[in-house]
Structures are given as structure tokens and as C-alpha cells.
Known about the structure:
Blueprint: E1 27-28, E2 31-32, H1 40-55, H2 59-65, E3 66-73, H3 75-81, H4 95-103, E4 110-118, E5 122-130, E6 136-146, E7 156-164, H5 166-172
Parallel strand pairs: 3-7
Antiparallel strand pairs: 1-2, 4-5, 5-6, 6-7
2-acetamido-2-deoxy-beta-D-glucopyranose (NAG) binds next to loops.
Amino acid sequence: MRSFAIAAAAATLISSTYAAPWGAGGLWGRKPDPSKCLTKDAATALAEGFQGLIVAYTTENAQALLAEDLVDYSNSIKSLQGFPVDPFTPVFPSKAAFMAGQGAQPSVPLEILAIDAFNCQNVTLRWDANFGNGNLVAGITHLTASNSQGKADTWQISAIYTEFDSLAWFKAIGGTVTPPGQ
Length: 182
Ligand SMILES: *[C@@H]1O[C@H](CO)[C@@H](O)[C@H](O)[C@H]1NC(C)=O
């Protein structure tokens, strides 16, 4: 049975204050500096890295891909867990909490539909996950990146904002939904 493991960690808000590498210094000569601004390749690598953690989680990949100050926001995941929802409290307030939660979850067949937008610091993707029996879940994920190691290929994910059809996912994992008034 597929289900999100409930992270026991207290949902402490972590404020992440990193220096803004995409500021005026983002321009390197006339081109964006690939160590200070995501390139299309770097943005794609982060999106595919995120997909990889959902499809085939490994601790090694999580360690490499996730920044030490990672925070993950998702009311959809909180809904599945039966927790109260609000957009300001992370579902996984730390890298360790994400790793404990995601590491305990069976593989999810997440496919990237499109990487629609990226800028110096962010990449946004649309995805689906086909659980069968008509439960084709759709989702949108916004990733914020940081680059503490400062090389063109050392970008990491520092924040995840992800929302999806939690009702369809709930049905896919065996939940039943009763519409109001029935
Ligand atoms: C990246 O996304 C984060 C979270 O939504 C936002 O706070 C930040 O301003 C964005 N950065 C840029 C350069 O758009």
C-alpha cells in the first residue's frame, strides 16, 4: 500500500536566509553566471532530480540533491496524512524530515509533463502519476534552488512547494471518498 509516512518531527517553521546569488552579480560579463543563476540544464537537472527522489529514492541522491536547510511545503501531503492544512507550515521542516518521510514511501510513478518556467533561483514543473484504475494524479511543483558549493553543477533544492490531486491519490491508495450529502 502506498502511503506517505508521517514525519514525527515537529513542524517548526525554518526561516532560510541565504545570500541572494541572483542579484546584480548574477550577470557574468553579459551572460548569466551559471554558478549564480540556474541555466536551463541546471534547472532540468533539479526537476529530474526531484522526480528521481519520488520514483526511486536513494539516501545518496537525497544527500547530494537536497540543501542542508531544505523545507518542503505541501497541503496535499498534509491532507493525505490527515493533518490540518495551511500554506505556511512545512510538511517536512528539514532535510532529515524529508528523507525520513520520502525514504519510507514506496516508488510513485511520477512523470514530468513539462518544465514550464525557470529563472535564476527557481524552476516550476508539471507532472502526473498514473496509479491505474482511473487515478491519474496531476501535480505542480515549484523548486527553489541554492548553490552553497558555488559551481555550475552543484545546485541543490532548498525549498519544495508541491500540490496535487490529493483526493485522487487518496483513492489510489485505497481510501474511499463520500461526497457531501450522501
Ligand atoms: C523563487 O521562489 C521563491 C518561493 O516562491 C520566492 O520567494 C523567490 O522570490 C523566487 N526567486 C526568484 C528570483 O524569482
